Amino acid sequence: MDLGIRGKTALVTGASMGIGRAIAAALAGEGARLAVVARRRNLLEELEAALKTGLLIIECDLMRDDAPERISRAALEGLGSVEILVNNAGGSRRFNLETSDAQWDEALTLNFTRQRQLTHKLLPQMMARGWGRIVNITGKSEPEGINGAFCAKAAMHSWAKGLSREVGRHGITVNSVPPGRIMSEQILRNYSPEERKREGEEDIPVGEYGQPEDVASLVCFLASPLARYITGAVIPVDGGFRRYQF
């Protein structure tokens, strides 16, 4: 199927590994012109070599106060526009009752504030063009103990829903994709083969962990003109793992 995004310009944050890398590769495969962002330039250069196509590489740590300005300026100067924004960068770790304010601030900044700021930097040129796609790679927001990232993801879902109501009339859609158990460096580090096998067999209806490409396929569709009537949605890619009732 021709998704209609050949020649579109796209910016993907956290593109050096895992889900972000797969999204960048999938968008490039559909013919989009890409700017990719991560902290480690060497991994982005490896991605560029693997894709055998030119990428606009932006090396930047999202925790920098000036990250949204630096990234948006570099992307607009290098691509001329950003029609598709994929907010993928983020990180998660368990908190406890003694977690400091600084750690809370870090979690909310990395998983919500920077995505919001970058999006708002790029919205004016999308609105002027009358077309845009914003896709946020988020995560579960139901609590399993204290985790700053969970709280930030809940904020992302609420913000994205509200934003979708403001920008829909400009031809811009805003959607969120919370992945389930998707194979990545973090999963391999935190879950043993035995735990992955048990969870896949007992807790995931399709019977296995997902692959980054499973998320990338949905993102490409949401980034396309074909998804013009889908906005303000939260669409899990989790093999049925989450037990949402709505």
Quick take:
The chain is an alpha/beta fold and 246 residues long. The chain is built from eight helices and six strands. A six-stranded parallel sheet has the order 3-2-1-4-5-6, sandwiched between helices.
Secondary structure: elements and pairs:
Blueprint: E1 9-13, H1 18-29, E2 33-38, H2 41-51, E3 56-59, H3 67-79, E4 84-87, H4 101-129, E5 132-137, H5 148-167, E6 172-177, H6 185-190, H7 193-203, H8 212-222
Parallel strand pairs: 1-2, 1-4, 2-3, 4-5, 5-6
Order of helices and strands: EHEHEHEHEHEHHH
The number of helices is 8
**Quaternary state of the chains:** single chain
Q: How much of the polypeptide forms β-strand, as a percent range?
A: 5-15%
Instruction: Report the C-alpha radius of gyration, rounded.
Output: 17 Å
Q: Structural class given helices, strands, pairing?
A: alpha/beta
Stretches where pLDDT is under 50 for at least 5 consecutive residues are: none
Shape: globular
Relative helix content: 40-55%
Q: What separation lies between the terminal Cα atoms?
A: 29 Å
Largest sheet: 6 strands, parallel
Can you tell me about this structure?
This protein is 46% helix and 13% strand. With 246 residues, it is of the alpha/beta class. The protein has a six-stranded parallel β-sheet with strand order 3-2-1-4-5-6, sandwiched between helices. Strand 5, helix 5 (148-167) and strand 6 (172-177) form a beta-alpha-beta unit. It starts with 8 loop residues before the first strand and ends in a 24-residue tail after the last helix. The model has no long low-confidence stretch (mean pLDDT 93).
